[in-house]
Amino acid sequence: MTMQTGETAALTVSRLTKTFDVSAPWLNRVVERKPRQLLQAVDDVSFSVPAGGCLAIVGESGCGKSTVARLVTGLYRPSAGDLNFANGRDGKTLRAQMIFQDPYASLNPRWSVKNIIAEPLRELKLRTGAAEITERVEELLRIVGLSPSDGEKYPHEFSGGQRQRISIARALASEPEFLVCDEPTSALDVSVQAQVLNLMRELQDRLGLTYLFISHDMSVVHHMSDRVAVMYLGRIVEEGDTEEIFARPLHPYTQLLLQTIPNVRTPNRDREPANGEVPSPLNPPSGCTFHPRCPLATARCSSEAPKIRTSSSGARIACHMVDVEE
Amino acid sequence: MSTQQISEVSKPVAPVKTARRSMFSRMRDSAVWWSFTHSKAAMVSAALLAILVLTAVFAPLIAPQNPYDGAQLDMWKAELPPIWEAGSEWPYLLGTDTQGRDMLSAILYGTRISIIIGVGSVALSLLIGMSAGLISGYFGGFIDNLLMRFGDITLSLPTILVAILVSAVIRQMLPLSLREIGASAVLIFAIALSAWVQYARTARAQAIVEAGKDYVQAARLIGVPARRIMVKHILPNTLTPILVAATLNFGMAILTEATLSFLGIGMPPSQPSLGTLIRIGNQYLFSGSWWIVLFPVVQLCLLVVSVNVLGDWLRDALNPKLR
């Protein structure tokens, strides 16, 4: 893996694989003579997240990016592969906290905001005593741009953007250095998206956080990340520096994704319409899984899966049709 | 970035401060309270239930006689008719039974026993059912299969049969001296063991839904132990449908107790519940002493109907689809 000199990786993921068993119940399988059915959600994925940086994973829905997020946080156990967290500032192995996609499901509706944010403080014994906890909760609310008096309220009294701020405050309460953000703004409307994203960037600068940022929105990714990994059907097809990828996308799928960004200056520019949909991961196409939709596909693409290759500029790409100077 | 910019971002989203309201005022403004005050059936049945429960709880203060105290019974006053019939005697408002026991006092004390057994068995089956349901729904897999199949077996036997079986077995296990005293505990246990499955299924279904939500994942990430996630996060969000089921089952539990007592395997005649009173009265129905059986039956009907009407209303009031 290439890394600019002087940077250390907060997280190194190597050959991560996650398979879900989506078979019918045992009795149905016996009666209907159905085989076991496995879903390869994440297939041999390797990447590293630089400490203090932000790696974005992009892709269409169903490509396995949320599964990667849950694997990194430990909510899922990997079927194969390794996750290696570096040591944090306190010398202990880093642990990831998470900001969730749906701000309506990520806060317990029956708990007051104060209790929601105080839960990590109590659980991890970061603060003891009611006064200290209250003080820290108010501080966290102020950090995420809410009023300290909001602690007495319940989640239903807040808008989506405010709830996402509460979610961020809860994640920050456990004093993490590594945050996994699973589409934190996709449920919000555009004006609020910008506020939440700016808040997250401010927090990154102030607290020295490392982000693994999951998104399907290329413009959000451009705004947030230092590096981008593009995923398609459980595999990484291209990875590189954000500026590099946005300026010179190499993989045909990355090019297709970039064409989805609306442009104010040339709203009616000549666009190649994205043909086809993501195939079912239950029954992925042979060879390069992108070949049915790829404008460059040849016979080789449908028979042989491309290996990921690293170019001299540090970009990684998995495509037969792109020349990479190794 | 400077704090100046942060406060600029925060300004438009900071909501106006509102003082936290008291529980009472929140209850008064709630949709459930509104629905209650707009449902005549709910208010009438709640009032009736309140009267029945209060008179039963304060039976020792209200009742003219202690029906458990043999010394107070007077065989010369046996089978007196109610006060409005010829041959009646003060203070036997509802007449007396064949042992000179005042019917009103016996009914008040009997209701007390019925309510205690009803509340006790519902509470115990709630405890069993919700624990099983939460564990099943949260962990899934083998333990889920084990608990739910056990529940299926329980459910495939008629409630009354399970109750008879359990009470017969426990009764045999108790020493003779404890059988009279422990009769109500045995009944509570027997009824609870036959009724927990419904709560377990409801709690399991809710627990599966809640356990999939992100707030539970967030708690897991923090490292909150499973037991605490179940009790503090999932349980409060599963209570609504279980509360409704518990209210409706309270009526069922009272009826099951009455049935068991009527069949003679419930409360002994020395501490008669409503069911026992009906069984005793049933024997004198054809000798013309209709009051011995009628009044306990009326009381039992009032109690169960008021509980059921209230439960029906609660189910509708808490159902978001019907609002």
UniProtKB/TrEMBL annotation, chain B:
It comes from the Bacteria. Residues 111-311 form the ABC transmembrane type-1 domain. InterPro entries: BP-dependent_transpt_permease (IPR050366), MetI-like (IPR000515), MetI-like_sf (IPR035906), OppC_N (IPR025966). Its main location: membrane. It is a multi-pass membrane protein. Pfam families: BPD_transp_1 (PF00528), OppC_N (PF12911). CDD domains: TM_PBP2. The chain crosses the membrane at residues 41-63, 113-135, 155-174, 181-199, 242-263, 284-310. Coiled coil: none annotated. It is found in: Cell membrane. Keywords: Cell membrane, Membrane, Transmembrane, Transmembrane helix, Transport. PANTHER family: ABC TRANSPORTER PERMEASE PROTEIN, OLIGOPEPTIDE TRANSPORT SYSTEM PERMEASE PROTEIN APPC. Belongs to the binding-protein-dependent transport system permease family. This is ABC transporter permease. It comes from Nitratireductor aquimarinus.
